[in-house]
Amino acid sequence: MYRVREWNRGDADRLLTAFAWEELARQESDVPRTRDEALEWIAGRAVLAKERDVHGFVVVDGQDRALGHVQVSVSSRRHDFGWLAYWTHPAEQGRGVASAGARLATEFAFDRLDLFRVETGHRLNNPGSCVAARRAGFRPEGIERAKLRYGTSRYDTGMHARLVTDPVEGVPEGVCGG
After folding, report:
1. Looking at residue 69, what is its pLDDT?
2. Which residues fall within 8 angstroms of residue 68, CB to CB, at 6 or more apart?
3. What is the pLDDT at residue 177?
4. Which ranges of the sequence are coiled-coil (predicted)?
5. pLDDT for res 35
6. How far is residue 49 from each of residues 1, 6, 53, 134, measured CA to CA in Å?
7. Could you give all domains of the chain from N- to C-terminal order, each with its CATH number?
8. Would you list the DSSP string of the chain?
């Protein structure tokens, strides 16, 4: 149903409409606001992969329509772990896009990047992200107090991880902090 691929120039308009959503824009440090900036953002994915071991993908449906973004950043080669981040276009939320993208990017991390552990986290006031992480096989590991800061506000964060030895199935439903 869903798959991931590299971002391309044809995704620029869809990327701009995603970042027009202020909730997404306030969480990102690199927010494209024009078509040229969107094209730079897209071209930057290849640079990040090559220079910083940050591998980003667009999540697409059967019509190859951009539905969201997922990326794995290698945090430590010595310890073989990485960090997973994801977002879904606001028009596509609630359809399993984030879960599918997270699952596919994590498989990439295990199979292609040779990672043993992938971590992710989310604000506690974002229960949808918690559900997506669990459905992608990420086990809850605890809550980190006031970890994230957006503007002047700090947020507690639900932390999750998936090991290469963990099955996707078997993570209990629910939300962190609930």
Report:
1. 97
2. 18, 58, 59, 86, 87, 88, 89, 92, 97, 98, 101
3. 65
4. none
5. 97
6. 26, 11, 5, 26
7. 3-163 (3.40.630.30)
8. --EEE---GGGHHHHHHHHTSHHHHTT-SS---SHHHHHHHHHHHHHHHHHH-EEEEEEE-TT--EEEEEEEEEEETTTTEEEEEEEE-GGGTTSSHHHHHHHHHHHHHHHTS--SEEEEEEETT-HHHHHHHHHTTPEEEEEEEEEEEETTEEEEEEEEEEETT--STTPPP--TT-
Summarize pLDDT for 64-97 with one digit per residue, the tens: 999 999 999 999 999 999 999 999 999 999 999 9
Residue 49: its pLDDT value, please?
Answer: 96
Which stretches of the chain drop beneath a pLDDT of 50?
Answer: none
> Residue for token digits 């986290």?
121
Q: Using an 8 Å Cβ cutoff, are 99 and 86 in contact?
A: no
What value, to the nearest 5°, has the Cα angle with vertex 83 and ends 46 and 4? Answer: 50
Cα 12 versus chain centre, distance: 18
Nearest to 131, CA basis, from 90, 74, 88: 88
**pLDDT for the residue 30:** 86
